[in-house]
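#struct-pred

JT: dropping the chains for the assembly here, can someone run the whole complex?
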Amino acid sequence: MLKTLTTKNMKTKIDIHHGDSKEQLKQLPSASIDLVVTSPPYADQRKNVYGGINPNEYVDWFMPISDELFRVLKPTGTFILNIKEKVVSGERSTYVMELILEMRKRGWLWTEEFIWHKKNCYPGKWPNRFRDAWERLLQFNKQKKFNMYQEEVMVPMGDWAKTRLKKLSPTDKIRDISKVGSGFGKNISNWANRDKAYPSNVLHLATECNNKNHSAAFPESLPEWFIKLFTKEGDTVLDPFMGSGTTLFVANQLKRNAVGIDIVKEYCEMVEGQLGEKKYEKASA
Amino acid sequence: MLKTLTTKNMKTKIDIHHGDSKEQLKQLPSASIDLVVTSPPYADQRKNVYGGINPNEYVDWFMPISDELFRVLKPTGTFILNIKEKVVSGERSTYVMELILEMRKRGWLWTEEFIWHKKNCYPGKWPNRFRDAWERLLQFNKQKKFNMYQEEVMVPMGDWAKTRLKKLSPTDKIRDISKVGSGFGKNISNWANRDKAYPSNVLHLATECNNKNHSAAFPESLPEWFIKLFTKEGDTVLDPFMGSGTTLFVANQLKRNAVGIDIVKEYCEMVEGQLGEKKYEKASA
DNA sequence: AGCTCTTATGAATCATTGA
DNA sequence: GTCAATGATTCATAAGAGC
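RK: done, full complex below.
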């Protein structure tokens, strides 16, 4: 089931597929995607929505999807996979490592591992473990040469932060710093004549609590950072586990074409509705 | 070759072994170590000093040492391994993952992976890669139950706590009442006058550059954190790749016994000299 | 608008209970 | 026994209300 939303004045479009990713991906043409950003259901998580995947079966479950993603990605494209292993009987699961090893066998290059530092992680106390405050952002590519627009995510440096932030409240300081850390401030034009620096492979972002109805896998600034870094306007971004559609919204705001897939019909309808009510015409295909 | 330094007034001692870790570890008695903290030579790094280990051979090289560490560690002890895979022909190497998988086969439990966020990481710019600002701190144990003194590494709370601690918020009151109503009361006294919180599994530390002659693997605060967390006074800490001796110095300052091994004679002599000139008597064994 | 204070809650983990 | 479900624990953020 595919629905296509087309913008009136802009030239980008949004495709929303309802169905199993493994099947729906076969409908996409080869080498048509510039960037895949997704957060698949973690093993044994979100059981109520996705049914849950046993950690032992996770690699087998993901490989057909991984192969299809490899096919639809352009040679210069990038695949960003957000994932984190859970604790099982006191030990970290190893399925993420096994996933990386298996994907390399199937042709993927494991280019980099970014760290998402979740500043407001879930609370809790246990006798032999601290709170888990980070997740993996695995970068895979098809070849060594891929598109990367580093200057798009440069962060301001120097005295600006010190002088400016003094006047702000602690809350705003934190808020601003977090945005600076992710490369997105309120008034980027203000920083134009300041020195900028390249970020590192550690991202500092808070999880968002604003979408009460549906749990967003990650905050908007996360896909935003990678979309700016790995695509340009008019490119196409795919999220095969769309969920509440964060990746699609951001991609569209940044004037990229967006393709989303989700097995949950309600999610598809919600995303269609929210995008449609703003500025789009709906067209079935 | 073993040299033992004994403090005059304190009851801790320092053993320094000169030689190959694989061989020297055999001289240590079984179940005698409470904590292993080390930063082994990374694959193909520090060639000038250690000769360099090929990434493909890294696991085979490390396993004999891993097995000995398993033997000398107490059942309640912990092994902290500081490591980060390098980039080889555009890809992250996989030997760290293979190391974890192999160590689990040999009986280790992979309890946790801490992230060390290096705030002032090595500068540089590459066309398809950002600066690497983090390293892995892998925690291995022999059994699910191990010694952990969490209160020793608690950190000051954020500002929000000050206002909150004046009076418990209605939320907490309600939560408390509901729990009382269900038969489970929360110990409110734990919250009163509370100004510290437990940390997470992400550590924010800057690298230190104070030791110019010898490459210090990590800043003092790194082993300090783990020594406080996993040992108490009088316990024994081992670093099988001592290097400039950061782990040993910190362990001694914290009144733990320390055991160090290094294949480089100059390192052993330097550590002996620096410790001896302060407050120790030397004794050969 | 600026600030302060209040409130909800999030890919969590463990021990215990019940089937 | 093993496995699934429930209760307890507790921190950093955003949004909203009030001044």
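JT: nice. Confidence is low (pLDDT under 50) at residues 158-194, 210-214 of chain A. Residues 118-126, 131, 171, 174-175, 178, 206-210 of chain A lie near DNA strand D (CB under 10 Å from a C1').
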